[in-house]
Amino acid sequence: MTQQKESVVTPERFESGLTWQQYFADRVVRNREKFQYNYDETHIGEDDAAALRALVALPDGPAKVLVLGEDWCPDVFRGLPVIVRIAEAAGMELRVFPRDDNLDIMNEFLNHGEHQSIPAVVFYTRDHGYICHWIERPAKANAEMGEVQKLFAGLDREKDRDKMRDLNNEFQTGPVWASWREATVKEIRALLKEKCG
Description:
Distance between the termini: 21 Å
Order of helices and strands: HHHHEHEHEEHHH
Shape: globular
Mean pLDDT: 93
CATH superfamily of the domain at 11-136 and 187-196: Glutaredoxin
Helix content: 40-55%
Strand content: 5-15%
Structural class: alpha+beta
CATH architecture of the domain at 11-136 and 187-196: 3-Layer(aba) Sandwich
């Protein structure tokens, strides 16, 4: 789905969004340590950083990025810190909007035209021209979700609560999530190259 012709995201609306620092300080109540962990563990390699900076430098390059998210969502506390690192490495201006307070924006960027999936990441030119958007998680994560669900197969939500929590925490700090962070960087770089380069 492409953006509507008359977007609710005007340049002024974009500017009213929260910086990463403001969002983390004021809006992240749940999963703070997971946001921080994913931020600390995301590293943008020099090859990716140089390619992203070159794209931003283009006349219609991705100079601005808007992210919709909520602090309870695993795809957000994994993915938003990656987007922040991409923006920092590339020199993009980033603004974060809590999804549930900005459903009019969310409704422009529905997953498959119907789902309010987050994070929703929208890229704009310097003069606020829409470039493209990216939703939820990389294709690698979607492909591996079935394997991940097998970790929890046979566990009872009530009886095995502690075991489920421990497995979840182990998974979120393990190599699979690390590979999803890396896949997010590669996928966004490829998407922006396709749209701008």
